[in-house]
Amino acid sequence: MSNTQRYAMLASHLIESGSLLRLGSLRQLILGSFLVALMPLVALLWQSHTDLTRLTRMTIDETQQIAGLVSNVQQLESASVVLERSLRQFQIVKNDAAENLVSNALDRFGERYTALCFAKVTVQGCESVKAVFAGLQANTAFASEAQLIPVLASLRQSLTDVHDSVDEAIESRLIQQQQDVAAMQARQTWLSALLVSVSFGLILLGSQLVINPVRKLKLIIRMLARQQGRLPPLSTRAPKELVGVEKDLHWLGERLAQLENIRTALLRHAAHELKTPLASIKEGCALLSDGTVGKLTEPQQEVMSLLTSSTTRLNTLIEKLLDYNILLQQAQATFTSVNVEEMVNQCIEDYQLALQNHNLSVSIEAKTISADAELLRRILDNLLSNAVAHGSLNQTIYIRVSLENQTAFIEVANHGKKIPEEKISNLFEPFVRGEGARNDNVIGTGLGLSIVADCARIMHGEVSVTDVDYAEVCFRVAIPQQEEQ
User: Fold this and answer.
1) Which of 40, 142, 147, 303 has its CB 3.0 to 4.6 Å from that of 195, i.e. a possible disulfide?
2) What is the phi/psi pair of residue 99, to 5°?
3) Which long-range contacts (CB under 8 A, 24 or more apart) does 462-471 make?
4) Are 29 and 210 in contact (CB under 8 A)?
5) Inter-axis angle of helices 26-93 and 96-117, to 10 degrees?
6) 328-375 pLDDT per residue, tens
7) What predicted TM-score, i.e. pTM, was given to this entire model?
8) How far apart are CA 426 and CA 450, in angstroms?
9) Which uninterrupted H or E stretch holds 414?
């Protein structure tokens, strides 16, 4: 088994056993993921070093063998030239000195022949050289030049065959070496792709081990912001730092729930406690205004008119607070089929007097949608009230309902002063009142649009300010359509 396979098996074992998930801290998780992700790259470097070392050693060995073959061939050819010259001299002078030269030339030729033909590489033509060389050793004295020439020609031909055989062997070695290098490169390419993929997968796994707890933290924060109910249980296999943050968020959720309960109870009790003395004050104002306890002068009647108006407004504010408190306690919506046009006509009846006083008309383009009837009625009531209070006089209020991609869009638009962009961001916050004078000269509570936003949120929708070509101000409520419950 190669080192690469061992590293790959080790990485797979780490993934399957989940040992990374048992790391205690975020630092350990990051360092552990980094080290494990480096293992395939280290294996790749080691394998590359091993292949490069083997290729270098193989190249050196082949080069030495080829150089040795070429050197032996050159030395054998040189020895043959010396042998031929010695034989020709002996053929001419035929003395002891010439015979010694021939003997020395034969010995040298034999040594070169042995070095070449008995090497590791098989060389063609050595047998014919051996036969000619054996003949020369047996008989060096030729009767005439004519007898020597065929022998020398046979020797030259044999040496030519040897030279060609060596060239073919060298070329074959080079081709084999090129094939080995190409195979090594292909193996290295596939190995690199495999190990880089494994390393990339390990990087993704390590990042996922960090991303998943962070996503859960974002989910918890979003649930806290939207008050979406019970938080998910604490993680048991996340880094301890993120688990600590999660515990703090759970504590914060419990604290926010306590504060919400306190706020709800305070609103409920304060509103109910205020209604009792307010009813008494209102009844007393009515008795004084009717003259039951005595006739009032004109200045006194004016004061009583102001008191009656103030008590009426205070009563309206308390009812709005109670309505807002009830809305905050509603956890989910009940979707039914609602005839929006009929509901809008019911809202118009409640504002008929104000519409007549301001000479306002209402244009309705509505259809049946799926929504919570009570929440939708509150949305329409508050948006229509806002349009009557802030819209231009002697104009038209537009109410249009459309369906697109399983989402109902309710638009309530009116003519008037356009809302500045910088005011839109906090327009739907509680107790935020719009700028400019109202048509009814009454100071608003600042809860109308906040109630619209909360009603839309409970139905998994949203409200926004949008631009239309038929009016200056338009509020759009988007409500995803669901099956009737």
Assistant:
1) 40
2) -65, -35
3) 463/379, 463/428, 465/419, 465/424, 465/427, 466/411, 468/411, 468/413, 470/398, 470/413, 471/398, 471/413, 471/414, 471/415
4) yes
5) 150
6) 665 577 888 888 888 888 888 878 877 888 888 888 888 888 998 888
7) 0.45
8) 10
9) strand 407-414
